[in-house]
């Protein structure tokens, strides 16, 4: 991807919340400086927030949506491929949810087994060693 394309892709997000003066100062910079500013901003955003895998995927999807809305020429085969990839992404989300649920169930069952073992041990110890009454 060329620097100009990267700038175009991230410029709106980079300038979001900035004043008109900051916007004009950014636009007055050379392409190399704009690219450098945006890449540094992206790096800070990714690493300062300790982003999750999900937030990175969301970033990619938002960028893809913006690129799609700004595209001027996509042929029919590419559109079918995009549809196929979107369907695969939806399927992937469903599989992830199912796997996440299975992992949570397994974790809860392990916790339950530990609790049951601890409870059994406590009951055995209390039956064998009654507390002396005062």
Short summary of the structure?
The protein has 134 residues and is mainly α. It is 83% helix and 0% strand. It has helices spanning 3-15, 20-28, 31-48, 53-70, 76-128.
Outline the fold blueprint.
Elements (H helix, E strand, L loop, with lengths): L2 H13 L4 H9 L2 H18 L4 H18 L5 H53 L6
Helix pairs in contact: 1-3
Written description of the protein model:
- The protein starts with a helix and ends in a 6-residue tail after the last helix.
- α1 packs across α3 (31-48).
- The mean pLDDT is 87.
- The radius of gyration is 27 Å and the shape is elongated.
- The chain has helices at residues 3-15, 20-28, 31-48, 53-70, 76-128.
- With 134 residues, the chain is mostly helical.
- The chain has five helices and no strands.
The major sheet is characterized as: none
**What fraction, in percent, of the residue positions are helical?**
over 70%
Low-pLDDT stretches:
none
Spatial extent as radius of gyration: 27 Å
Helix/strand order: HHHHH
Structural class determined from secondary elements: mainly alpha
Note the total helix count: 5
Quaternary state of this entry equals single chain
Apparent shape = elongated
